[in-house]
Amino acid sequence: MNERELPGMVVWVTGASSGIGEELAYQLSKLGVSLVLSARREHELERVKRKCLENGNVKEKDILVLPLDLMDRSSHEVATKAVLREFGRIDILVNNGGRSQRSLLVDTNMDVFKELIELNYLGTVSLTKCVLPHMIERRQGKIVTVNSFMGIISVPLSSGYCASKHALRGFFNSLRTELVEYPGIAVSNICPGPVQSQIVNNALGEEVTKAVGNGGDQSYKMATSRCVRLMLVTMANDLKEVWIGDQPFLLVVYLWQYMPTWAWWITNKLGKKRIENFKSGVDADSSYFKFLKKKHD
Ligand SMILES: NC(=O)c1ccc[n+]([C@@H]2O[C@H](COP(=O)([O-])OP(=O)(O)OC[C@H]3O[C@@H](n4cnc5c(N)ncnc54)[C@H](OP(=O)(O)O)[C@@H]3O)[C@@H](O)[C@H]2O)c1
């Protein structure tokens, strides 16, 4: 099935103010779904909404801008009720909002690790817990979580981020087994590799108050539109897990999954270079990934 199965659905997207979530809003609005756009920055959500109305197949009444902080778990129940009041149902919850990390454990304040777990993991668990009873009542729905290659593999400078994404993968794989009596409820883990967005710009560094602030070169990353198109196919087909990435990055994930001893060896070699670049102030990602791509080509 392709994404033309989705029109008419009510889709709640977190992290809709930027990057993957923003592009998802555009592609979903072209399909004619009802959209709930959430993130912290309301003015950015309003900008995304305007663009959806200009270019999409939706009307004003089809889009709800709902500011939401994933870290503020006490607000999630109220937000869920607001969506149900507006549209009467939630067909798809897309857990997309999140932040990454660029720092070595030894130099990093514990608050950074706490923030990554509170936001990427507990925030997502909390919102899912609010929405799920409604899906159980209807015996249908889709819970789609934007995980990462970092939920499967691990690299240096992102230990807190890797931990949060590994936790999410374990959580949703377990939740799926709890929902065995509800075959109409699908749980999908979407694991993208490097994709063009603001993720590195917004990544946490050594202190929780300081983002990396320099997104670096994005040319080697997958186009956001391509990643999102494949996410729509995932949603239409209720796929349990998808890995979305170009080569050679995908190959690294296969190694971690099927030949971990080789993966550890290679990751040590490449990781050393990544740390060296980071310490010398070179764009760690760009040189690391370009190095990988060059080796592959
Ligand atoms: N781009 C990649 O290479 C890549 C690869 C694998 C996985 N991912 C995953 O894709 C997802 C989207 O990231 P992106 O690449 O699109 O990055 P992005 O451009 O930085 O977007 C991140 C989104 O998360 C929202 N967000 C951050 N903190 C939040 C909070 N406390 N409460 C609610 N929303 C919050 C941001 O909105 P506000 O700042 O307005 O709140 C923004 O809309 C993340 O889960 C990320 O881990 C990305």
From TrEMBL:
It holds the Pfam family adh_short. Keywords: Oxidoreductase. Signal peptide: none annotated. GO terms for molecular function: oxidoreductase activity. Belongs to the short-chain dehydrogenases/reductases (SDR) family. This is Dehydrogenase/reductase SDR family member 7. It comes from Chinchilla lanigera (Long-tailed chinchilla).
